[in-house]
Specification:
three-stranded antiparallel beta sheet, alpha/beta, binds pyridoxal-5'-phosphate, 15% strand
Length: 367
């Protein structure tokens, strides 16, 4: 039986095998492995790509987000126990980046149809302690940034994008990463722009913030052996940067292919057993994931698996039901709970064939 895997990273990276091997050899032969030309070039390339003045390569996506908060604390913009609004259905890393910095996450419910945070709920949650909003472009679709920024300006709040799933996504012609005060990206291998290991970046137009983040990510030091902050070690190494320089050239092409597959799913899936994701006007999703909802997801997943089609849950447990956040165990976030109970993700990837999408659509429509 033919198998359709959820994601085939070997195949995705194999497309660029020769170029990646050249890049790796170049780094090997350079004798310089941390904070060198490859990272500098990638930071420049990625800032240009996103349309921002600055990009700082860091160790991973969680660090990218966390360093933004940490830098705002060093700059005196944020203080211990300030509140940060963050979607109740996001991946746990968004929330960890807040609690790591001794800030208080306040969960905000998403819209059921887009899975992104509902801006109409923001003002009801603002208190004197609220200082920032973290907008997550979940599954690749930009959050409703224009509304979010309007409210943030009115209440003097910082806006931070978690763009870990949305490299290349656009809102009204502007790339994610350029839609807020600062954005965090992940280059975890499975992301739209993935390294062969861990990697991350912050993009921003704020020069001072960029400088502080760069410094904190390198032991809090700007000048070697001079430490201004109690920093951390979170850097994008030369090997990963060189590989990302190769893969960034193909990101738009890969996202276009994802979009073709997604549009096919959207126009051809006709089962009344599943609800399709809605894309907001003016949004260009990066289609990191294609997430549908069903009251009978176990039955559908089982039937697809029998036909060789692998599906996954993003994510099976709501953040407020995680043991790590047991202090929220009694809280109720009904939309997030419904989402976590009903969603499952269909395969979508830059190397998936259109005929595989047709096969998946036929399987579901015939259930
Ligand atoms: C992957 C991811 C992160 C964290 O990135 P890492 O590189 O794995 O640390 C943060 N937020 C979201 C929404 C993600 O999907």
């Amino acid at each position: 039986m033919k198998k359709i895997p959820f994601l085939d990273l070997k195949h995705i990276n194999g497309q660029y095998r020769d170029e990646i091997l050249l890049a790796i050899t170049r780094v090997l032969d350079s004798g310089w492995y941390i904070r060198g030309k490859e990272c500098e070039r990638f930071e420049q390339n990625f800032a240009n790509y996103c349309g921002t003045d600055f990009c700082i390569g860091v160790g991973n996506g969680l660090d990218a987000l966390s360093l933004i908060f940490r830098a705002y604390k060093e700059l005196g913009v944020l203080h211990d126990r300030d509140e940060v609004l963050v979607p109740s259905n996001t991946y746990i890393a968004s929330i960890l980046s807040i609690t790591q910095n001794n800030l208080n996450p306040v969960l905000i419910e998403p819209r059921l149809e887009t899975y992104n945070l509902n801006p109409d709920l923001i003002e009801g949650l603002i208190t004197p302690k609220t200082k920032a909003i973290m907008a997550v472009h979940l599954y690749g679709q930009p959050a409703e940034m224009m509304k979010i920024k309007g409210i943030a300006t009115k209440h003097n709040l910082k806006v931070i994008e978690d763009a870990a799933q949305a490299h290349g996504a656009e809102l009204e012609g502007h790339k994610v990463g350029s839609l807020s005060d600062a954005a965090g990206f992940s280059f975890y291998p499975g992301k739209n722009l993935g390294a062969l290991g861990d990697g991350g970046a912050v993009t921003t137009n704020a020069a001072e913030l960029a400088e502080v983040i760069r410094s904190i990510s390198n032991y809090g030091s700007q000048k070697k052996y001079v430490n201004k902050y109690k920093g951390v070690n979170s850097r994008l190494d030369e090997l990963q940067a060189a590989i990302l320089n190769v893969k960034l050239q193909y990101l738009d092409r890969e996202n276009s292919h994802r979009t073709e597959l997604a549009n096919f799913y959207l126009s051809e899936l006709r089962s009344d057993k599943i609800a399709l994701p809605k894309i907001v006007d003016g949004c260009k999703s990066a289609w990191h994931l294609f997430v549908v909802r069903s009251r009978t997801r176990e039955i559908i997943q089982e039937a697809l698996l029998k036909s060789g089609i692998q599906t996954l849950l993003h994510y099976p447990i709501a953040p407020h039901h995680q043991k790590a956040y047991k202090e929220w165990g009694q809280h109720s976030y009904p939309l997030s709970e419904q989402i976590h109970n009903e969603i499952f993700s269909l395969p979508i990837s830059p190397v998936m064939q259109m005929r595989d999408a047709k096969f998946i659509v036929d399987c579901i429509n015939n259930l």
